[in-house]
Automatic annotation (TrEMBL):
PANTHER family hit by this protein: QUINONE OXIDOREDUCTASE
Keyword list, A-Z: Cytoplasm, Metal-binding, NADP, Oxidoreductase, RNA-binding, Zinc
Pfam families found in the cross-reference section: ADH_N, ADH_zinc_N_2
InterPro entries tied to this protein: ADH-like_N (IPR013154), ADH_Zn_typ-1 (IPR014182), ER (IPR020843), GroES-like_sf (IPR011032), NAD(P)-bd_dom_sf (IPR036291), Quin_OxRdtase/zeta-crystal_CS (IPR002364), Zinc-ADH_QOR/CCCR (IPR051603)
Presence of the UniProt keyword Nucleotidyltransferase in the record: no
Transmembrane stretches, start-end: none
Protein name according to UniProt: Zinc-type alcohol dehydrogenase-like protein
Source organism of the structure: Paenibacillus baimaensis
Family: Belongs to the zinc-containing alcohol dehydrogenase family. Quinone oxidoreductase subfamily.
Quaternary structure, from the entry: Homotetramer.
Protein's cellular compartments: Cytoplasm
SMART domains in the record: PKS_ER
Enoyl reductase (ER) domain sequence ranges: 16-338
Amino acid sequence: MIQMKAVGLHRYLPIADKESLLDVLLEKPTVQGRDLLVQVKAISVNPVDVKVRAPKDRTEASPRVLGWDAAGVVEAVGPECTLFKPGDEVYYAGSITRPGGNSEFHLVDERIVGHKPKTLDYAEAAALPLTTITAWEGLFDRLGISQRPEHNAGQTILIIGAAGGVGSIATQIAKGVGLTVIGTASRPESVAWVKEHGADYTINHYEPFLPQLKELGFAGVDYIFCLNQMQQHWKQMLDIIVPQGKICSIVETDEQLDLMPLKNKSATFVWEFMFTRAMYETPDMIEQHRLLDAVAAKVDAGELRTTLTERLTPINAANLRKAHELVESGRTIGKIVLEHF
């Protein structure tokens, strides 16, 4: 049996506990079907990692490996693969229903994998997949925004949580298709980051939205992409969405939402969950491969850039615990990436 390094967990514990994430040795997996075996070079940490790892009364008999952002090199391909070959450099988010990528080698279905941008190193590329898929699907598949800038002239979008991982790439993509982008940010450093990534305006999410929008000259917005604190902002979103406007959220809520105020406006509310296609193996699952390749082309053309803000080396339990702690703080800007086993 060939072994590989990985970071996993047996118990779901507070991140301050050294047993919340452990260095482990696991059997190196083998390919079948449409799977790629990827030698992982870099990984990134997202809020989903923190949510899955959060304390709960449950144990795992064998180590559970988290991690849904990776970049690396294809070592082997399954017999049904047609999109990649050994030696290809790739980046991807993976599937929430399978082991994550916090391991030296990782199996992933080729239909949700993209060719790594040639102009980025592995760490810069690993910062992008989950947030990019979320942003792309949210903007184009869920909100139905056109990818042709001439169709979006005069249209406005409010991105709530614009300095975070998804917000940082969503701002760039939205600006690139001609939308007027308003991002929420509260600290001087996050305001600067949001503007640097293409926002035309910023407002403070700790203050009422409508007066701030009116001060900027807007009576409402055509689209809202909610990436943070939906319960806190829901009533304000109902107030500022224009008639026939659209709201998309990626944020879970434990409260029932009142959709009735959307009726008279004929306004739309829709969810975005980037794992849906892989989780249900939908007929259009390959769209994630296509969108990651499209984003790589835009990165290499200088139209989009990585959202990496911090690198940690090497990939081990201690550094992953540090990254989880930073993400849990809710104050991170951009993405935290770990590289090198």
